[in-house]
Design goal:
Length: about 240
């Protein structure tokens, strides 16, 4: 329950509750800061309880009758325009103005593409550390494709994309064949002798095979991927040399 996570509960407050009860996030954050992500998804009933906490600086655990003072700075994030949510009665107007003391608007990734390489560098370093692997190189072709992509899922999609590339590339140089992005154009083609990724894996493999006269080893080398990976992709797409 979101309510029990935020405000805690007394032992036996509901089925499955711990006998000793649980301290909620607001109590944990006393004299500190609490970040509430996706605040737009909070049910209206909980919005009212959150408003009470912000106004009175106290919480009441589930199953308890005592109020516990808390001093917490709240930072809230939303993936939608909260003012629009207010207009459609999906978000309480009083809570909106209580939260909206200082507003920071972060544009979608497609509108700040100049940040892309910095974000890739940060995410790649972090994920390699978490996986315990050596950081691979990323080809210029991959950067070119990622800069041209519209990123409908914003930074979360970028994180997912990088994680998948790390898993698929298995520590080798990350090339276009490892990109999981959805296609934005219908054709993959050669520009100035360099294979660019537009349609997806299948188009790239077909063109590499055509340019190399059906020689799988040469085509795999051209795409900078292992021959075994190239064969696996050919089988996946129903292709033959």
């Amino acid at each position: 329950l979101v309510e029990s996570e935020l405000f805690g509960y007394q032992g036996g407050a509901f089925t499955g509750a711990r006998r000793e009860g649980m301290v909620g996030k607001f109590e944990f954050a006393h004299k500190g800061t609490l970040f509430l992500d996706e605040i737009n998804g909070l049910p209206l009933e909980l919005q009212a309880k959150l408003l009470r906490v912000l106004q009175q600086n106290e919480i009441m655990r589930l199953g308890d009758t005592r109020c516990i003072p808390v001093d917490v700075r709240v930072i809230a994030a939303s993936s939608t325009d909260l003012l629009t949510e207010v207009e459609t009665s999906s978000f309480r107007e009083d809570l909106y103005y209580r939260l909206n003391v200082v507003e920071i608007v972060i544009p979608p990734l497609r509108e700040r593409i100049e940040d892309l390489e910095l974000l890739i560098d940060h995410i790649l370093t972090r994920q390699c550390q978490e996986m315990g692997i050596k950081r691979p190189q990323i080809s210029d072709e991959v950067f070119e494709t990622m800069r041209a992509y519209h990123w409908p899922g914003n930074v979360r999609e970028l994180e997912n994309c990088i994680e998948r590339m790390l898993l698929v590339s298995q520590g080798t140089t990350i090339s276009a064949i490892h990109l999981p992005l959805r296609p934005q154009k219908k054709e993959a083609r050669l520009e100035n002798g360099v294979l660019t990724f537009h349609q997806g894996y299948k188009g790239m493999i077909e063109e590499a095979l055509e340019q190399c006269g059906g020689n799988v080893s040469m085509a795999a080398k051209k795409l900078n991927i292992a021959r075994s990976t190239f064969y696996r992709k050919m089988k996946e797409f129903g292709l033959s040399p």
